[in-house]
Amino acid sequence: MRKTCIALALAAMLPAAHAAFPDRPITLIVPFPAGGPTDIVGRLAAAKAGEILGQQIVVENRTGASGTIGMTATARAKPDGYTVGLATVSTHGTAPHLFPNLAYDPVKDFTPISNLVTSPNILSVYPQFPAKTLADFVAHVRANPNKDGYANAGAGGVNDLGMIWFLQLIGGKMNSISYRGSAPALTDTVGGVVPVIFDNFPSSLPYLKSNHLRALAITGTQRNPRLPDVPTFAEQGYKDYDVTAWYGVVGPADLPADVRDKLAQAFAQAVRDPATAAKMEETGAFPLGNTPAEFGQQIRTESERWKSVIEKAQVKLQ
Predict the structure, then answer these.
(1) Residue 274 to residue 169: CA distance in whole angstroms
(2) CA 112, CA 37: separation in Å to the nearest integer?
(3) Is residue 185 a contact partner of residue 151, using CB atoms and an 8 Å limit?
(4) pLDDT of residue 221
(5) Which of 2, 120, 140, 308 minimizes the number of CB atoms within 10 Å of its CB?
(6) How far apart are CA 171 and CA 47, in angstroms?
(7) Do residues 102 and 70 make contact, with C-beta atoms less than 8 angstroms apart?
(8) Among the residues of the chain, which ranges form H helices?
(9) For 293, phi and psi rounded to 5 degrees?
């Protein structure tokens, strides 16, 4: 009788010990401030993915140090799927090669889950700037080294490094004028203080629509439907040049494959949901929702790409 009771007690415990994932809320660490593009994408995706999984996904903003504080917390979390993070090209492409004492490796310390969306960047100029096309711009910069400056949202940021990379490709030299964010950088470009800006598509779009800026080229594999007359860099002869923002979910290393795949399926389905996708596109982000293997390859490619750019430019941040 005693053995039967023990067996029954153990059997009763088994469902709790092997409960299907997820059986409680999940935390999504967003490593940038609330209200920014990373946060908006994270909240939209988390809301729908939570519905699909049947559990709430709570967004937690852990900001600072170009997103690396939040990503460090993600890397150190228990690998059970209940804490994941929203990685970006900054946290996994550039930061590992800018900060010599970074607490994580972008490849070894994470489990790729799904790259949710991409968002292009755009090269624009003050309307009175002499270049009307990208070819004009390249010729002007080559003929006038260090004559002009370009505005960017922060030294060592993706937009600054993206312009550094393009200048490396064309053999040109310009002065980097760094600001604390896109808003002040755009204000000075629109005012003609700095004639050139390489910036995120969503923040630049209103100024382009109102003709306060003139677009020369946009990143990405195809033209953007919201600015169909702006050619891509690839169309204009720079096929290997692509500085595109992306936002993808990662977990700590050694995340179980079944948990990883369930999260990947839910997040991919979430960003492909028509209502969620439409909201994403309003911010200038375009749904992707790829597989863990595809996202892992993207992270490796981005890391190597930016390592080469940063080493050549000898950029280091503390």
Answers:
(1) 39
(2) 20
(3) yes
(4) 86
(5) 2
(6) 46
(7) no
(8) 2-17, 37-53, 68-76, 89, 95-98, 134-143, 158-170, 182-190, 201-209, 257-272, 274-282, 292-313
(9) -65, -45
Residue 290: strand, helix, or coil: coil
Q: Is 129 left (phi over 0), alpha (psi -120 to 50) or beta?
A: beta
Q: What's the pLDDT tens digit per position in 7-56?
A: 444 444 444 445 799 999 999 999 988 888 889 999 999 999 999 999 99
> With contact defined as beta carbons under 8 Å apart, do 113 and 92 qualify?
no
Query: 317 burial class (0-12, 13-18, 19+ CB within 10 angstroms)?
Result: middle
Length in residues, the chain: 318
Q: Do residues 75 and 253 touch, judged by C-beta distance below 8 A?
A: yes
pTM of the model: 0.85
Q: Which of 278, 63, 73, 34 is nearest to 43 (CA)?
A: 34
Are the C-beta atoms of 227 and 205 separated by less than 8 Å? Answer: yes
Angle at 252 between CA 246 and CA 254, to 5 degrees: 125
Angstrom distance (rounded) from CA 188 to CA 74: 36
Contact criterion met (CB below 8 Å) for 174 and 146: yes
What residue has token string 């559990």? 55
User: Residues 201-228: pLDDT tens digits?
Assistant: 888 999 999 999 999 999 988 888 889 9
The one-letter code for the residue type at 23 is D
Q: Which of 75, 66, 64, 76 is nearest to 97 (CA)?
A: 66
3-state secondary structure of 32: coil
Tokens representing 44 are 């939209």
* DSSP label of 4: H
For residue 13, the SS3 value is helix
